[in-house]
Amino acid sequence: MVRLGRAPASRVLGLALACLPPCAPAAGESVDFAQVLERADLEYAHRAEGAQGAIALPGPIDRAIADYRKALDLEPDRALVRARLLRALFFRATFCGGGPEDRKVLAAEARQVADDGVARLESAVDRDKQKGRIEVLRATPGSGDVLFWAAVAWGEWAQTHSRWAAVRARAPGRIRDFAQTVIDVDPNVQEGGGYLVLGRLHDRSPSIPMVSGFVSRETALRTLRKAYEAFPDNTLNAVYLAEAILRHEPARREEAKKLLARCAAATPRPDYAVEDAHYIAKARSLLAGL
Fold it and tell me: What is the pLDDT of residue 16?
């Protein structure tokens, strides 16, 4: 998940695999905001137009990103808008065939957008001293989505920087804390996304004292299983659980093969045509390797 040493970074820290709830205009807010947001959502919904399997054209998602930026400028405290921008930035970096420099620029923007969103959420917590932190976050629409995509953004940023940059920035601990908070706020966010991010972190990150000494392969398998059991039709949940089993529970190889076979035979869901095509192809590749 985070690139530390030779351990590959997790591509889950990018999960564009679940729709966010509607972000209806509030009473009295600007018409411009409502129009821009509606246009951005429509553009995002058409992100797979012209795609070749798991590779999407950049045009549709670039237009969505531009309008999500405008909407966020107009309403910077709207957590769901921020989460949608982060989701779109991840899709652009992951599924449009861009090079390392493209990913680095997008990851830097995503981290900045995420950090600002987290700071705004924590300010709301500080203002409401009568309630606990999780209680305030649960009452804030979109907070779980922002925290999920913050974990994604930090993971993507870590992938585009050196091991020591990630260590200095405390990326593993940040990702762990964001993912755990998502689980505490709503375990169903992004189809078990908190469990998936946390599991992938424990699966792929090395254990480095005072940096990621908390890493546990047992935790990886437990949390990845929770994500899959709750949302078995999510292709990402299946692939990442299968990979973790093959790495850490070789005696359960047949279980991993069944997970991959089920995923490989799946048909991409209409709402996630590009994303599912990517993980279906990965499942087929892993099966061929076995």
Answer: 36
Place of tokens 């990702």: 175
Strand partners, 52: 55
What is d(CA 115, CA 100) in angstroms, rounded to the nearest whole number?
Answer: 22
Question: Rounded CA gap, 144 and 150, in Å?
Answer: 10
Spell out the residues 6+ positions from residue 218 whose beta carbon is closer than 8 angstroms to its own: none
Residue 211: the pLDDT is 66
Sorted by where each begins, the domain ranges of the chain are 32-207+214-289
Residue 6 dihedral angles phi and psi, to the nearest 5° = -95, 0
Determine the straight-line distance between the first and last CA of the chain, rounded to whole angstroms: 23
Q: Residue 9 has what DSSP assignment?
A: P
23, 37, 110: which is closest to 73 by C-alpha? 37
Q: How many helices (H) and strands (E) does the chain have?
A: 13, 0
CB atoms < 10 A from the CB of 273, how many?
18
What is the distance between the alpha carbons of residues 128 and 123, in angstroms, rounded to a whole number?
9
d(CA 275, CA 152) in angstroms, rounded, equals: 15
Give whole-number Cα distances, 213 to 148, 158, 162, 173, 216, in Å: 22, 17, 19, 10, 8
Give pLDDT tens digits for 212-239: 778 899 999 999 999 999 999 999 999 9
Residues of the chain with pLDDT under 50: 1-22, 24-27
- The rounded distance, in Å, linking the Cα atoms of 144 and 197 is 13
Fold for domain 32-207+214-289?
Answer: 1.25.40
4 bridge partner residues: 7
